[in-house]
Amino acid sequence: MLLNNLRKTGMITRNLIAKSGSVSVTNQPTRAMAGILTEKVDRHAEYKNLAITVPKPFVVCVELNRAKRYNAFNKEMWIEIKHCFESLHTNPDCRVIVISGAGKHFSAGIDLNDMIKLGQDLADIDDVARKGHYLEPLIKLYQDSISSLENCSKPVIAAVHSACIGAGIDLITAADIRYCTEDAFFSVKEVDIGMAADVGTLQRLPKAIGSQSLARELCYTGRRMESSEALSCGLVNRVFPEKEALLKAAIEMAEHIAQKSPIAVQTTKQNIVYSLSRPNQEGLDQIRIMNKLYLLSEDLAQAAAAQLTKDDKPTFSKL
Ligand SMILES: CC/C=C\C=C\CC(=O)SCCNC(=O)CCNC(=O)[C@H](O)C(C)(C)COP(=O)(O)OP(=O)(O)OC[C@H]1O[C@@H](n2cnc3c(N)ncnc32)[C@H](O)[C@@H]1OP(=O)(O)O
C-alpha cells in the first residue's frame, strides 16, 4: 500500500523500492551536522525533503530539509516521513532518532500551496460524497505519517528552533522528548486556516502539557506560545540559546540513550505509549506479558553485571 502510494506520486524510483525497508541515508552531513558525522547507516536512497545523517553510532538524525519553504509539509514530505520512520522502526542500526529542521524555521506547517491545489482537485469532483471519498484516505495518510514517530519503537527527540506551526506541532507532540531554542515559538494554527487540527495535536498536545485548559486555549486561538511558556508548561523540557547548542545537546542525549540496552529502551517506549490512554491495569498487563520474554534477554544479565562492576558502557547486541 505504502509502496503503491510512493509509486503513484512518482517520488519513488524502482531502485528505492528495491531498497525499501532499509534506512536511506545521505552520505553528506548537513550544515548543522558538519563535523560530527561519523558513519553511514546504510546505502543511499535519498529522500527529497529529508536529510538523514548518523552523527554517532546508533543515532540517526532526520532533518526536515525543505528550507526554501520553511519545511512546510507538502504531500511528498508527509509520505517520506512515514516511510522514513517505518524504516527506522525495524533498522537495527538505529536506536534513537533526532528530528530537526533545516534553515530559518523548524516548520511553517502544512504547505498552503498544497492546500490550494487540493481545493482545486476537489472542485473538479462534482458529488459531495465523492469529494469526501477522495479526502478521507489523504487525511489518513497524513495521520499515519505523524503517528509513525509514535509507532516507531526507537525514542524520537524533537529539536525545535524558531517557528513550529500547525503540522509542526502535530509532529513534535508525537515525539518522545522535545527541546527547543530560546527563539522558538509554537502555534496550533489550524483554527486560523479554518480547520480543526486532524492529524494528532488535539489528541497528543493535552497529554504532552498536562493542562486541558492551556491546550484548549492554544487550539481555539492559534496564539503564539514562546519558548519560556513552552518550558513552563512542559511542552519542552530544555531550552538552549541557539540551534547549534540545541542540536549538540539533542545528539548527546540520543547517544546516551543509545548506549542503553535496546531491549530495555524500546520496551519502555512501547509500554509508555500503550499506557498513555489506557487504565493502569492494562498497561501493567502489557508490560507483564512483554517482560516475561524480555527479562530472559542477555541484555538484562549484561546490564546488571555492568552495574555491579561500574562498567558505564556495556555493549549490547543489535536489535
Ligand atoms: C489534512 C491536513 C493535515 C494537516 C494540517 C495542518 C494545518 C497547518 O499546518 S495550519 C498552519 C499553516 N501554516 C501557516 O499558517 C503558516 C503561515 N506562515 C507564517 O506564519 C510565517 O510565514 C512564518 C512561518 C512564521 C515565517 O515568517 P517569516 O520568517 O516572517 O517569513 P514570511 O515572510 O512570513 O514568509 C516567507 C515566505 O514563506 C511563505 N510561507 C510561509 N509559510 C508557508 C506555508 N505554510 N506554506 C507555503 N508557503 C509558506 C510565505 O507565504 C512567504 O512566501 P513569499 O512567496 O515569499 O511571499
From TrEMBL:
The principal localisation class reads other
Q: Which domain of life is it from?
A: Eukaryota
Any one GO molecular-function label of the UniProt entry: delta(3,5)-delta(2,4)-dienoyl-CoA isomerase activity
Q: Tell me the Pfam families matching this sequence.
A: ECH_1
Q: Which UniProt keywords apply?
A: Acetylation, Fatty acid metabolism, Isomerase, Lipid metabolism, Peroxisome
What pathway does this protein act in?
A: Lipid metabolism; fatty acid beta-oxidation
GO CC: one term?
A: peroxisome
Cellular location(s): Peroxisome
Q: Name one GO biological process term.
A: fatty acid beta-oxidation
Q: Which reaction does it catalyse?
A: (3E,5Z)-octadienoyl-CoA = (2E,4E)-octadienoyl-CoA; (3E,5Z,8Z,11Z,14Z)-eicosapentaenoyl-CoA = (2E,4E,8Z,11Z,14Z)-eicosapentaenoyl-CoA
Q: Which Gene3D superfamilies match?
A: 2-enoyl-CoA Hydratase, Chain A, domain 1 (3.90.226.10), Lyase 2-enoyl-coa Hydratase, Chain A, domain 2 (1.10.12.10)
| InterPro entries linked to this entry | ClpP/crotonase-like_dom_sf, Ech1-like, Enoyl-CoA_hydra/iso, Enoyl-CoA_hydra_C
CDD domains in the record, alphabetically?
crotonase-like (cd06558)
Q: Which PANTHER family match?
A: DELTA(3,5)-DELTA(2,4)-DIENOYL-COA ISOMERASE, MITOCHONDRIAL, ENOYL-COA HYDRATASE
What is this protein for, i.e. what is its function?
A: Isomerization of 3-trans,5-cis-dienoyl-CoA to 2-trans,4-trans-dienoyl-CoA.
Which family does the record assign? Belongs to the enoyl-CoA hydratase/isomerase family.
Name this protein carries in UniProt = Delta(3,5)-Delta(2,4)-dienoyl-CoA isomerase, mitochondrial
Q: By which gene is this protein encoded? A: 106086397
